[in-house]
Amino acid sequence: MERTFVMVKPDGVQRGLVGEIVARLERRGLRLVAAKFMTVGKALAEEHYGEHKGKPFYAGLVDYIMSGPVLAMVWEGPNAIAAIRQTMGATRPTEAAPGTVRHDFGLEIGRNLTHASDKLETAEREVALWFKPEEQVTWTRDVDRWVFEKA
């Protein structure tokens, strides 16, 4: 079972899309294991976007993620990283496939509503950065046997 990090960014929160995004992931069959509604401090923002330090857009990313509340989450399921990235759509909303979150609700890359880990190593780092192990719940749903081939 793969765990990954997802965040509804300030634009998604301000536009009232938290429920829509969570519902799409739940309907997809993924399982929510941790969530925090919070404002992001500078140290966490800088560490989260650390791989982009020194790039021209780094300061803008840090400032933006601190500009309003976010919903930080951990989701799990088989191939969760790929499934979530597919559900969110391409980073540039105008290149995202119809039916994805970014296609349906976004227009510009700087207001693309969500962040989702892109690979297992990133997911592990981001989950550990945003959530302590005791903040993540291990649980099963009765419906899991109808969603996962191996529950």
Describe this structure in words.
- The protein is α+β, with helices and mostly antiparallel strands and 151 residues long.
- The protein has one domain (2-138): Alpha-Beta Plaits.
- It has eight helices and four strands; from the N terminus they run E-H-H-E-H-H-E-H-H-E-H-H.
- It has helices at 10-14, 18-28, 42-48, 58-65, 80-88, 101-105, 120-130, 144-147; strands at residues 2-8, 31-38, 70-77, 114-116.
- A four-stranded antiparallel sheet has the order 2-3-1-4.
- 31% of the residues are buried.
Layout of helices and strands:
Elements: E1 2-8, H1 10-14, H2 18-28, E2 31-38, H3 42-48, H4 58-65, E3 70-77, H5 80-88, H6 101-105, E4 114-116, H7 120-130, H8 144-147
Antiparallel strand pairs: 1-3, 1-4, 2-3
